[in-house]
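CORE FACILITY INTAKE
Project code: CF-77B
Contact: R.S. (postdoc)
Sample description: multi-component assembly, two entities in total
Requested service: structural model of the whole complex
Turnaround: standard
Below are the sequence entries exactly as provided by the requester. Do not edit them.
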Amino acid sequence: MKKKGVKAVIPYLYFLPMAILLAIFVIYPLYSLVATSFTKWDGLSAKEFIGMKNYVKAFRSEKFWYSMKLTFVWTLLSILILQPVGVLLSVIVEYVVKRRRASGVMRVLFFLPMLMSMVAIGLLWQLIYNPSLGLLTSVLSKLNLIDIMNPPNLLGSRSTVLAAAFIPTIWQWSGFGMILTSAAMMSIPSELTEAAAIDGAGKFNQFFRITLPLLMPTIFLGMTINMIGAFKGFDMLYAMTAGGPANYTTLTSIFIYKLSFTENKFGYACAVSVILILIVIVFTMIFNAAGRKIDERFT
Amino acid sequence: MFMKKRKLLAAMLAGVLGVSCFTGCSSEPKTEEKPVITVWCESANESMSKFMEAFKSDDFDVDVVYYSSEDLKNQVRIALASGEAPDIMAANTGEFFNSIMTAGQALKLDDYAKKYGWKDKVEESYLDSMSKDGTLYGLPLQTQSAWGLMFYNKDFFDENNLEISMYPTVAEITELSGKIKELGKQPIALGNMDMWPGMLLFGDFLTQENGQEMIDALNDGSEAWDDSETVKKCLENIAQLGQNGCFQTGFEAQDHSVAIESFVNGTSAMMYMGTWWLTYVDGGIDNLDFEYATVASPRMEGVEVSNSAQIWCNQATFVNADTEYADFCAQYIDYLASDEAAQAQYEGAMQPTFSPDYNDNKLVIDPQLADSEAFETDYTLPRVNYMDWNFATSVTEAVEIEISKLMVGDTTIDEAVKEIQAVAAEELE
């Protein structure tokens, strides 16, 4: 009887280390975040419980809603652009480039930006875009495409800054989508396309009627990952624009950072973080539900 | 039998291993280890770093850790909140250091100040912001940086017969910027990505007609931002400079180091920057390809000499209230407040130091800077802290955002002051 009891406990012991790590690094910080969100705290003195005031303040704040608007635009761009570009790159690598070695080299080249530090990429592109000293101005003026005294001020203008700041994200993250899609492409049985070829389907039809539908679950997975990443987007954008000019690129993540480390309003920042987490959870659930439908439809 | 022997052997080996682990180096003669005090500070220039690390004492050692300005602020906050702060730290004055003093996390330094005579060794005018209720908590031990000046490429101006007065008005700067652009150069190098340069520009205008009194009035609410004609006038002048193309293209999205690079490499003909830019020139100021000269920052109509000047000697160097080694920390701070420390600072920065004695007795600035009447005048004016450290950080942030928008015409003066007042009122609650 005693032996049976010990045996029953053993599986839980295997689980214990991970449970402890999870408790220390996820559950406790999450609990602390939620608890702090109900307080007024400057990060140094004692916390003062203020109930729901931080949440009320957030929902009434124009700055918060503006940051949410920018976050949604950024997320939408990430969902709609990053994975499709990744698919395009994988098509180039797997189908267009015939030589095996060349496609290998291209795969590495497309994936290389993924290995770079986000902050380094932010600073690099900030310099590329700089109207007075940057590479872009230099190249465009050499090609006589711009007046050197009126160079494009992409990061300095409200109308262009978000799009300009998103281009490095495409450059960096499309490689991830490509690897994901390439791996999925390789797992598609060649018999399917061969059978279609025998039935007279051309390359175009083979891709759009067989390969692409089978890739849909993977493409959707990539989109979900990009969506979560976009909601958290911070490092590269902050390094490139610091949330500016004015607050035109202050996504919610940057808004939270500024509230905490510039304005010393940790309680308020925690409340905004909790709201952001809830939004990410809701969207992830919606995406997961949609993902299941796509799985059922295409596999 | 064999199993028993093996168990015995294993037990003996484990015993030997255990004993050897615990005894370790017991045969070595015991040496008393000196305590180490840890100092966190902003990255210093080479000569100052060498000086800080050269400290020798029979009683204790010092471990100096350097951080960039922004990192230091975050690390100090996190360390203080977690109770793991080092013995000595540096922090920006203003709201941040005020909250450290209020929370009782900085050691009271009055007794040490008397013992070592610190109030004579450092610039007295900065001590107020490092004190609370008459008690001293920190010392300003960096160089004094002046803001409120503009630098221009004298060679370029001379070659093209361009003239600029010592106290140029906004209108004069606007006209001059147009001429500079026609000659194929960018006008004033400015890097407002982090938005504090815009705030200091606001401070320059504010201190032309007013000083600390106005800042205090805005802080305590006796002067509302949206009612203040002075504030509106300052913002109008900033808007004029920004919207009339007086700053180089892209100033909104580049930081101050890129702005300095733009002036140093000749892309821009003028630069609006603190005097510390001299330390940014690769290989030292002697390596500058042209002669530079200094004038006052743009004046509002009718103002020549300002009411006061933004000159600051940051940061507050303070001792952790929980340190075990308060006396050693004071001893090390006294080392940092010595004339030798001032000498090391000057060698690295070519600017006036924290030490009034050293500044009075030695040549303490770059000769080209020293020649400027505007620079000399600034140093005689009543001093105010840099404007981004004078208000609550949320108010500063609001002012900075509105200035950024005004500079490119994305808002109006009335809308801007209304936004700022809303944040200031909330802060007063």
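Facility notes:
- Chain A touches chain B at residues 42-45, 126-127, 129-133, 148-151, 153, 155-158, 161, 241-242, 244-247, 258, 261-265 (CB under 8 Å).
- The domain at 45-298 of chain A is CATH 1.10.3720.10 (MetI-like fold).
Invoice: internal transfer
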